[in-house]
Amino acid sequence: MRFGLFQSVQLPDPKSEVRYYKEALEQIQWAEKLGFDSAWITEHHFSRHGIVSSTLTVLAYLAGVTDTIRLGTAVTVLPFHNPIQVAEEAATVDLLSNGRLDFGVGRGFQWGEYNKLNIPMDEASRRFEESMEVITKAWSQDEPFDHEGEFWRFNDMTIHPRPVQDPYPPVWVAASSPTSLERVARNDWNLMIGQGEPFDQVAQQVASYSTAVGEAGFEYSPKRVVVARPMYTATSEEMAREDTKAPFMWFKQTGQEVGAPPENRTELLPDEFSSYRRRFSRDIGFDYDDMFDNVALFGPPGQIAEKVEKLRQSGVENLIFFINYGGIEHRKVMNSLELFAKEVMPQFAD
């Protein structure tokens, strides 16, 4: 199995932006030394829930201070960006890192981000698909091309630099619903499963994607799926609960506050986001104990290894860990990574 980080920078203390960034970057460099395979950076806008608004800028920095760890976007929200600019910046990161970029993309889901950018949410999927068409053309075509789409028009287009990886960096697409899983498979993209799905649902999604890839005429491998999980390894279950409950619940609650439409008016979410209407309904709550048992990898090494094995048996071979939620103490995160690397990771070595 392969293990990596699903890294965010959050802002519980509004005056500590510099410290939170510094700690998040140190955690990635420490993970590389411990033998973790990858580090993926999330994109969010306009809230303390996530303050990395330019993932590729951060990855360009990391390309210069790391040597072996792969660097991923998780995800670049394509409807928010000019696709040619994304293609150029991503290719630059691939060059600076000597071919270590994983290109994770999605359409986003937070009503507030779309509203503040004045982008209609019912255009999300169409914008995403058009952007992917432009980006893959820019990376792969040797001759200049024209593009005239619904949202973008480019003339006599070619980009430099080109990606180091051939034909371009691996593409990973965030998806969860049956329709979106089918779209990912139909386009022969790799799948990224979010950190909030229960273990049983992860197994169902992996199986559905595997079937859909085969039906689309492509070859499936477990290496084509990456699954995110909240993780904290401690010396005891009691310590794991004590250290994670407050910061993790802060993360969940702020995500609800910034992601939901105003006054939880879920009717503002278009049909293509209908699966989020329950998630953002007014009466939704979060049960820490349930998430501890069925979603998160929190606990001592033995308990975590059991959950990782359950995921492995469901077809998961690539896990990335959300580790610095809600301002959890930096020292504790560093210790958790080290304990996982020493006590859990060797049990799943190839």
Description of the structure:
The protein is built from twelve helices and twelve strands. By secondary structure, the protein is of the alpha/beta class. The protein has one domain: TIM Barrel. The strands form two sheets. The protein has an eight-stranded parallel barrel with strand order 1-2-3-5-8-9-10-12, surrounded by six helices. It has a two-stranded antiparallel ribbon with strand order 6-7. Helix 7 (199-215) links the parallel strand 9 (190-193) and strand 10 (225-233). Helix 6 packs parallel to helix 7. The radius of gyration is 20 Å and the shape is globular.
Give the topology, please.
Elements: E1 2-7, H1 17-34, E2 38-41, H2 55-65, E3 70-73, E4 76-77, H3 83-96, E5 101-106, H4 111-117, H5 124-140, E6 145-148, E7 153-157, E8 171-174, H6 178-186, E9 190-193, H7 199-215, E10 225-233, H8 237-259, H9 276-279, H10 288-294, E11 297-299, H11 301-313, E12 318-322, H12 330-343
Helix pairs in contact: 1-12, 2-3, 3-5, 6-7
Give a short summary of the structure.
This protein has helices at residues 17-34, 55-65, 83-96, 111-117, 124-140, 178-186, 199-215, 237-259, 276-279, 288-294, 301-313, 330-343; strands at residues 2-7, 38-41, 70-73, 76-77, 101-106, 145-148, 153-157, 171-174, 190-193, 225-233, 297-299, 318-322. With 350 residues, the protein is α/β, with parallel strands linked by helices. It has one domain (2-348): Luciferase-like domain (TIM Barrel).
